[in-house]
Amino acid sequence: MNTILILLGKIIIKISQLLNLGSGSTWPGHVALLLNSKFIEQIIDKNKKMKIIVIAGTNGKTTSTALLKFLLEKSGHKVLTNNEGANLLNGVASTIIRNCDEFSKLNYDYAIFESDELNLPLLLNKIVPDKILILNLFRDQLDRYGEVNTIATKWLSALKKLDEKTEIFINGDDPQLYYIGTKLSQKVQYFGIDKKLMKLKDVPNDVDSIYCPVCLSMLKYHELSYAHLGNFYCSKCNFKRRDVFDFSKVKINYPMKGLYNVYNTNAVLLLLGIQNNKWLGQFTPAFGRQEEIVYKNRKIFLLLSKNPAGFNQSIQTVSSMVKSKANFLIILNNRVPDGLDVSWIWDVDFKPILEVANNIIVSGDRLYDLNLRLKYENTKNKIEAFEDLSKAIETIVNKTKVGERLYILPTYSAMLEVRKILLGRKLL
Amino acid sequence: MKINIGWLYPDLMNTYGDRGNIITLNYRAKMMGLDPIVNKISINEPEDSISKMDLIFMGGAQDTQQEIVNEDLKIKGSFLKKAINDGVPGLYVCGAYQFLGKYYREANGKIIDGIGAFDLYTESSKFGDPRCIGNIVIESKLFPKIKLVGFENHGGRTYLADKNCAFAHVIKGYGNNGEDRTEGIFYKNSFGTYLHGPILPKNPELADYLIKKAVERKLVQNVGVKCDRPFKLKNIDNKLENKAREFVIDKL
Predict the structure, then answer these.
(1) What are the structural domain ranges in chain B?
(2) With an 8 Å Cβ cutoff, are B11 and A207 in contact?
(3) d(CA B172, CA B134)
(4) Is A341 within 8 Å of B196 when comparing Cβ atoms?
(5) Quick one: CATH architecture of B2-251?
(6) Which end of chain A has the least Cβ crowding within 10 Å, N or C?
(7) What ipTM was estimated for this complex?
(8) Inter-chain touch B63–A207, beta carbons under 8 Å
C-alpha cells in the first residue's frame, strides 16, 4: 500500500514541478494521509536506525533546524529535514515521500522535523522522537493558534504520553515551559543564556507567562532578557528556575545577531554537545532570517518579523546594527500564514527604529494600519505608504546609496514576496 | 487640563494588542491640547486609585490571567462599578466587558460572578460551537456618519437585558452572540465591546468621544480645573485614520 502511495506522491511532485504549481511540499503528503492515516508512523517504523529530532516553539524553529542540520552534516551525518512551510503533518509526510525509495527506506542518519504549535501534539501521536527541543512560547496569530495557555496545556499532555527514553530540551528561561519540564518524568535538560546578556530593566508589554504557574502570583525576575524570558522566581511559593545551563562559562562565537539567536544557538548546542561550537563560524542563516541579499549594489538585510516578541527582537537587533541612520521598509500582510488579525502590531515597540531611521516606507495588505501605528509613536519621521510592493522596494532602494545597507522587516507571506522580487524566483 | 487615564491590569489584561487604545487616547488627548497621565492600576495598586480617574480602560486576556484579575476585582470591583455609575467614561474590551456583566457561565455550568455594572450575562460557547473569530463591521447611532471596524476573537456569547442598550448593530461579523446582531453595550458614559483591532486607532470618533466626556465631567464638576470657559479642544487631522478604516472595510 505504502509503496503505491510513495510512487503516487513522487508522481504528484513531478507533475506539480513540471506545471510550475509550486514545489509540491504538502500535496503528496496530504493525499498519502488521506488514503492511509498511519502512513507517517509506518514509514518511520521501517527506518528504526534513523534518529528523530523534533523542534517546536513560536520563534526560531527554522533557524534552529538549519543550524542543527548544518552541525550534524559537518560531523559527517546525513540529515533529512522538512522544508519550511511544511511543518504540518502533510508536510512531514511529503518530506518522507520525496526522500524515501519505493521500499519505504529513508537513507538518513537523522531526521529533524520542525512542528508548528498546533501540530506538535498530532505529530507526537505518530512518532516517538529521540530528542525534542522546545524553544519558546509567545503569543502568535491568536486567531489561528489560540492563546498561549491553551497551547501549553496541549503540549504538556502530548509530552507526558511520550516514551521514557525521549530526551527533552526546554528553554529554562520561559516560566511556562520550565513548568512543563517539571511535570515530565522523562530526562529534561534546560538551556538558557548568560545572565550578563540580560539587560532589560522592566517587564515589557509583549509578555504572556509572567505569573507563577503553580500559585498564580506575579513572578519576579533577578534578570530579564526579552519578553517573559529571564531568571524568574515566585516570591509566594518556591517555584523558581533550577539547573539551567546558561553557557556563561563557554566561549562561543555566535553566528547570528540578536539575543533570540543566542537562545537558538545555545539550544542546539545543548542538544548536540558543546564541542560542536567550532563549526559555528561557517553557518549562514536560513532564508529570510537575517539574510543578506545584494540587490542593485545595495546590501539588503532581511529579517522575518511575524509576532510581537519576534518583531521586538528584530527591532532591537537592527537598531544596534545601525551606526548613524538607515532606511527601512516594513511590510504587514494578514494572509492565512500571517494571521488575519493585525492587532498585535500595537504590542510592538517601534521607537528604536524610528530613532535610527532615515527614510521609512510601509507596504503590505494592511499598510495603513502600520502607518497609523508608526504615526501614534509620535514620530517626526516622514513615513510613506505604497500599496504596490514592487514600487515600495524600488523607491526605498533608490533612496539608499550604493553600497549602503537597507533593512526590510516583513511578516511571513511578505517575506516570501520580497524574496521573489529581489531574487526573481519563487522559493516555496 | 490634566486628564487621568486609568489603565486597569495592563500586565494581565493585554493579550490582544489592546494597549493600542491607551496609546491612542494618550496621543489624541495631547493633540487636543490636554495633559493626559496614564495610570497603571494592577493587583498591587490600592483599590481607591480607581476613584481618582477621569477615564478608564481595560482590555482582554486569557482565562488564567482573567482568573487572577477576577480575584482582585472582588476588592476593586465596587470602586469600578461606582465610577461607571457616576458617569466616568470608560472602554471595556472583550474579557473586561464580560467581567462587568452579571455573570459568566462556563461550559460545565459553573457560574463566575461579574461585578454587575452592566445588565448582561455571558455564556461559554456550547460544546462544538466555534469561537467568534474574524473582522467585524458595525454601525452605532452615536456615530451616524460612519461604520466602525475591528477584529473579534471570543468564545463567550453575551446577552443584553435590553437590546436597546447595545453599543452598535452588526453589519458583518458576530458581535455579542452571533444571533441578535447587537454589539457591545453603551451605559452612562461607558462602552463594553468585543472589538479588538485595537478599536480606537481606526475609530478615532470613539476615542474623541471618551476624551470629550472626560473633559465635560471635569468642567461640570469643576474638580481641580483651572481654566477659562469655554474650553476649546484642538481639531485633529484624521486623514490617515479614515484611510486605514476605509481600506479595511473595502476589502471585506
Answers:
(1) 2-251
(2) yes
(3) 9
(4) yes
(5) 3-Layer(aba) Sandwich (3.40)
(6) N
(7) 0.95
(8) no
